[in-house]
Design brief:
Length: 164
């Protein structure tokens, strides 16, 4: 088997599935910049209904507020691409799903939409487990497809590590 840093997305998903099933936990995803790609990667694995509960595609600010309960004032104050918002997305997803684990992403995939403070490729990640919420920022190079693919890969890689 490959070393942990070289696993492909399907291998990360299989590892996540195994960990969740052993704990009898379910996963939910709250996605902005990936537009459902994390959920798609998870549900590409046959039998995923045993551990993947639901995905929220909350691309707009209104969707984050309406579907996940993210406070509009929080978005206005910090911006949609922020630690505060991704953590609220995790908490909202967990509150609205029948899951014990959540992954959330919000970022600037490009080619437009970036700023000096949040250039294209900036992505905030959040993961929620019964142990609490973990968040981090990453900056990815490349075009829109590359940023989105790197986001999916990192979200799943870090989730797999958190579940071990």
């Amino acid at each position: 088997m490959s070393s942990p840093n070289t696993l492909s997305t399907p291998e990360w998903v299989a590892q996540i599935a195994d960990s969740l099933q052993k704990k009898q936990w379910l996963l939910t995803a709250a996605e902005s910049c990936t537009g459902g790609l994390i959920s798609a990667a998870c549900t590409d694995l046959a039998g995923s209904s045993a551990w993947f509960e639901r995905g929220f595609v909350t691309y707009s600010n209104d969707a984050k507020t309406e579907m996940l309960g993210v406070d509009a004032a929080l978005i206005a104050r910090h911006g949609a691409v922020s630690e505060e918002v991704v953590r609220a997305m995790v908490q909202g997803a967990l509150a609205r799903a029948h899951a014990q684990v959540a992954v959330a992403v919000t970022g600037v995939a490009g080619p437009s939409g970036g700023s000096a403070a949040k250039p294209v490729g900036t992505v905030w990640f959040g993961w929620g487990t019964p142990a609490g919420v973990v968040s981090e920022i990453r900056h990815f190079a490349g075009d829109r497809a590359a940023v989105r693919a790197a986001t999916v890969q990192h979200a799943l890689q870090r989730l797999a590590a958190l579940l071990t």
